[in-house]
Write a structure and sequence with these properties.
This protein is mainly α. Helix content is 62%, strand content 5%. InterPro entries: HSF_DNA-bd (IPR000232), WH-like_DNA-bd_sf (IPR036388), WH_DNA-bd_sf (IPR036390).
Amino acid sequence: GFRKVVHIEQGGLVKPEKDDTEFQHPFFLRGQEQLLENIKRKVTSVSGLKGEEVRVRQDNVAKLLSDIQAMRGRQESMDSKLLAMKHENEALWREVASLRQKHAQQQKVVNKLIQFLISLVQSNRILGVKRKM
């Protein structure tokens, strides 16, 4: 691959005033452009990973994907349950409103009955008082 050529005057700790960086490669020769095709980028190899480690990582990825799919399924199930609960809640609130209206009507009827009974009792007292005399 390419090697950086360091000049003697640039070898120190002091940064040089001008940047004359040169590179060296066996296929990088003056006047031979056809050799440039052979120069390839250095591919970083996965030398630290063994085949077994790659399989373990693939297994981890597969497990992670299955876990995500399971979570997605649970999420969709919870979403459908939540939607059903919302509809049920709306129906219950409509029923509560209807029952409140019926209760108010019944309360009016009960109040009228009580007023009627009170008027009967009072009229009987008045008639009873008149009869005794």
